[in-house]
Amino acid sequence: MCCVLRSLAQISAFIPPEVNRYPSASVHNTTRRQKNALKIVASTGAKTRSQEDDYHATLEALNSKGRTPRKSLGQHYMLNSAVNEQLAAAADVKEGDVVLEIGPGTGSLTNVLVDSGATVLAIEKDPYMAALVRERFANTGRVEVLQEDFTECHIQSRMFSYLEADSVDAKFQYAKVVSNIPFNISTEVVKQLLPMGDIFSEVVLLLQEEAALRLVDSSLRTSTYRPINIFINFYSDPDYKFKVPRTSFFPQPKVDAAVVAFKLKQAVNYPPVSSTKGFFSMARPEELTLENFVSLYNLVVKL
């Protein structure tokens, strides 16, 4: 018992360490071929079907707003429609679902979600991309775009307001999150969304592959097993779905990505602790599973 108590000597407030300010958040300079493609699209006014959302369609969409991917926003645009289809399938998106999408970019994933029958609330920080997505889906009646920084918005109140709107099917039970998020806000997104099992049933995110593996399959007694792992398993059941090669993005990042699905728990299914705030203020858990950590916490609070 003394050894156990000594392991708690360095108690600090739970602030999940950043999984990484991922290298992939740094956008490569546009290649000469990419620059030329932008010029060709601009000069010819070439049209591509919006349903394709391929390389040329993405360039055309960006060019329509005079934009190139911004490093400060960690923008990497998905060029592979099959990946978007898999993302939607991982959340089992179907007719009547309500989906939160963070960082829709040019709307390629939004398009798949709408085609699946979902109503989408999209949150986009870049005002130009927000305008593009708003215009693209203006006639569908299925997409609302909020031009905000997700890490600073009050997502819970936003969702409650959205779900109470007349345009949302009153028969649904829980909303879902399906997003290709900027890698540099992964930890913030996970921290905000996972405790919201009263609103969301599934959170499906495209993350940097290294981070995805670390969040889902961390081993005990290693430096990668951190308070964020206890946090994730407290609020959800995470599942690594599939790898996404870096060649699927424009611009191409330095690393591959992966999709993780977090099945959110309801409050009645959380581990039994007297105070979540007190629980997450305990010391680093390198050698304890979630179950052991819960038992230890409950033992300590009784002393």
TrEMBL record:
Annotated S-adenosyl-L-methionine binding sites: 76, 78, 103, 124, 149, 180
Superkingdom of origin: Eukaryota
PROSITE patterns: RRNA_A_DIMETH (PS01131), SAM_RNA_A_N6_MT (PS51689)
EC number: 2.1.1.-
Name of one Pfam family that matches: RrnaAD
A molecular function GO annotation: RNA binding
Keywords: Methyltransferase, RNA-binding, rRNA processing, S-adenosyl-L-methionine, Transferase
Domain Ribosomal RNA adenine methylase transferase N-terminal: 83-266
Record flagged with keyword Glycosyltransferase: no
Family note: Belongs to the class I-like SAM-binding methyltransferase superfamily. rRNA adenine N(6)-methyltransferase family.
Descriptive protein name: rRNA adenine N(6)-methyltransferase
Protein's organism: Escallonia herrerae
